[in-house]
Amino acid sequence: MSAVVTELAAELIGVLRAKGLSLSTAESCTGGAIAAAITSVPGSSDVFKGAVVAYANEVKRSLLGVSDDTLQAYGAVSEQTVREMVQGVARATNSDCAVATSGVAGPGGGSPDKPVGTVWVAFYVKGRVVTSLLRLPDHGRMANIGATVEKTLSELLGLACEY
Q: Which CATH number do you get for residue 133?
């Protein structure tokens, strides 16, 4: 875990604690790396409720409530899917804030319309959902996951500060 990620996670925990907000994650392509970054911070238990690593579509459906229609029409790596994932994890954990990721970390699995480095992220803050599309340069699987974690924590920090 990079020093930047650790710093962002600590700052996020501080902001959430000060505002009395809780957090959860629903992760696919990041495989729990966001939750790991958050829980590496001492005192994170004050705000962090839990995580679902929903790698398989069946887990997205059964634990997070992503609809079959969404997965069929748009695929797992889509704005629509991460919207449903983030709302599902917020509902399941009764969290004020949540984040969801789904993407193509590589080295394989990409397609012409969703190449390696394509990542959809959804943020939930007190009922408001915001999405973000990351188009990362393909520097390898671990670099793609690391960049997603960093960008996600940074964006979530900004949204939490606005609240």
A: 3.90.950.20
pLDDT at 95: 98
- Helix residue ranges per DSSP H, 25-121: 33-39, 57-64, 68-74, 79-93
Q: How far is CA 116 from the centre of its chain?
A: 17
What average pLDDT does range 128-149 have in this prediction?
96
Q: How far apart are the first and last CA of the chain?
A: 27
Q: What is the DSSP letter of 131?
A: E
Distance CA 19, CA 22 (A): 9
d(CA 73, CA 69): 6
What value does the mean pLDDT take over residues 128-135?
97
Q: How many domains does the chain have?
A: 1
Q: What are phi and psi of 151, to 5 degrees?
A: -65, -35
The edge-to-edge listing of strands for the beta sheet with 128-135 is 48-53, 23-27, 97-103, 118-125, 128-135
Q: Is pLDDT of 48 > 90?
A: yes
Domain that holds residue 34: 3-162
Residues in the chain: 163
Phi-psi region of 117 (alpha: psi -120 to 50; beta: other; left: phi over 0): left
